[in-house]
Amino acid sequence: MSTDSLLEFARGPLFRLSFAVLVLGLIRILFLDLWGILKAYGKTSDKRMPWQLIRSRSFEWVLPVKRMFRNRHIYSIVSFLFHIGLIAVPIFLFAHINLWKQSVGISWPALPYSWALGLALTTIVLGVAMLISRMVLKPIHLLSKGQDYFWLVLLLIPFTTGFICANLNISAGLYQFLMLVHVLAGDLIFLLIPFSKIAHCVLTPLSQVVGTIGWKFPAGADEAISRITYSDAVEPKPEKG
Amino acid sequence: MNRVKTTKLLLWLFAGFAAAVALNRYIFGLGVTTNLNDQTPWGFWIGFDVMAGVALAAGGFVTTAIFYMIKREEFHPLVKPAVLTAFLGYVAVIVGLLFDLGLPWNIWHMIIYWNPHSPLFEVGWCVMLYTTVLLLEFSPVPLEESSRYAKIRNFLMRFRFPLVLLGIMLSTLHQSSLGTLFLIMPARLYPLWYSHILPIEFFISAVALGLMMVAFETLLSHWLYRREPETELVGKLCKIATWVLGTYFVVKMTDLALTGKIGMIFNGSWLSDLFIVEILISTLIPAALFAVGKLRRNSTAQWIGSAMVIVGLVMNRIDVGGFAMVGGAASYTPSWMEIAISLGIVSAAILVFLLVVEHFHIWEIRPEDPQSLPEVSPSFDYSSRTWLGTPDVSSLATHSLAFVLSFAVGMAALSGKRLHAEGVDSIVVRPATGVDTLCINGNRDNQFVEFPHEAHIAWIKTHAVSLTIDGVIDSISATKEDSCTFCHHFNLPGERLSNCWECHTSMYSRVDFFRHDWHTSARGANLKCDDCHTPGVTRTAESAKQCAACHPAYKFAVNTNLAKPAFYIPSYVDAMHELCVACHKAEVKEVKGKPELALCTSCHKTGTPPELRAGMKWKVSVPHYDNVVLPNVSTVEK
Predict the structure, then answer these.
(1) What is the predicted pLDDT for the residue at B61?
(2) Which domain does A120 fall in, by range?
(3) Mutation target vs A (from B403, B411, B534; most A CBs, 10 A cutoff)
């Protein structure tokens, strides 16, 4: 198969497949989560929930501007900026909107070229920085699993290839090849999002509710947990080793 | 193997696949989804979803008639499932119709806009009313779940008998009227199927089909939930069905014999073979099978016989509804998308049936999900090793995943070409013929436009005009000296005045005039991006060089300013209309003897094209082509 026909396949059937999996998969996982929450809430003995607190905390985590300046400032800011580029560039890039317009006829306002360029560059640089810090800094390294490295690398692939294709003057053959990598990586990302940790893009707003209901479920769990944590707080256990 | 779970999984897969196709149908329309055409506007969807769907749901009225009217008390266990099947069947018919109607949002029109002479009007009203009756007949079942609704339930139960009566009446009316629909087309329907008593045949076969559908549904649901099969009761249904099928066969054959068509059965054409197969499957073999008392009470024979009747009579409806139509210019075979949609609707209906059966009091003993029994060991997710939850939660997760994945596969299966299609065949434009008067007939039918080229030249030479065409051309103008370029706005190399059809090569679909992919591909011009696009700006058509920068011979006329650089140029039809109509609206609204020149009939004519007309004058007054020596056309004149 030539690069041309592969590219045609990747941005045709494969894209439709992965995009459908992304959209419906995220709706599905959100629905299942809500369903589980409702079921658990129905079974809790103590129905008093601190809704006000849950709401404010949820907002705080969805837009973590306040959280940024609590601890680990640099990492928080880097991560926040990384997310902005990660979300805004693929959605509001002119070239992507143009594809939508040509195929199904819908369009929305695009980022100006200079903004898209800057955001893409920022995302790539910050992504690389986060990858290095995961490898080098001990506390993060200990917390990281294979998935964390895999996702950073996978997310950087379409950004890098897309950046090269959109801005550098390369030969048509190389362009086609990089575009193929770009589209294939994008398809893979779409396919994996609903089944991996990136599903937090829809589940984050529910995390506080889940935590609070988990605290109340099953019946009597809240007393047990508070007893354990309270005793921990009063008499810290001697460290081992 | 868990039969219920596997079946549901399969049904969810079908439903998901159909959902993707449904999206295609509603976004891009019937043209890209179905193989229907003007000769066969009714195809698989009408034959299967509507005609067969209504007949399959006849079990509701047949069973209620047997139970309430003939007072055969032993059929009580079959009444609730039969009414539920009928109700879901009619809902499925309506949903199916929403796919088939070109303007589905107008489905309510027959409520207000009456056409009492139309059988379809009667069918529509009956289906609407009967669906309501079925809902009222069935609603006591869900209402008995809570004592809160006791009053409504008692109220409905008081009217049960009139409702049943109304149901039987409405069914009789529209089951037969579906046959009446085809009385209008004796020439289209193959004679073996066409009959003056088609309504009666339809009604009798619907009764048989309804009975067998109840039998099949009972057998199937009992097999699914591993319950004791009700062989005795189904046997009784089969006995009744034998009589009905026998009557159907006798009526049909007598009619064929009386109208002298019985010989056609063996004339060897494939439609007559189809007829033989249909009669064998739907009537003769099952009737013979059930005529034997021992076989009638055997559950295997019941399976085979009822399935045969269902397949055979559904075949009959599809045949009448479009398959056995003759005389059409274009042949029709349903596209896979049509079949996928029908399959999806049936799957969804079965899923709702199973859901209702599991949650409401349809059977004497409510079926138990075998997965929720305490002795079943819990299942774990294979990757995270977590418990998947109670069976209802875990099956929800599995089934929704099945739906999502098969939806995605469906999206991938829709071919990109179809998704982008504009619903038209690509027709290469035939050049206009003639000299002073042009005959414009791009698609070679007998409708054409007689274009007085000479008169236009004469007019435009004395006028300075300018025009704006929304979204296509910002401004196009011509001075008196340069008047030709007003219409001939683009020139191919070596030509001063290129013809319309040379660039607008396709009759109805837009033309990729620029071919970007050819310019970038290694097998084409093999250009780098910055060879045409300005670096540092988003690469769009606007930021690219104009064609003339590389192709000096390709020239836009001096006074033409395009609204946007044209990758795609309009089809021949659009190009003609945009230029002619716009100019005749703005500049020349009427000429002597021809008011309202922007109207269709001012230009479009039917009949013999002028080039074929005898005595037509093809005179050249001014040889206005500079570099072409024209033959003296006036010698053709006779």
Answers:
(1) 92
(2) 3-234
(3) B411
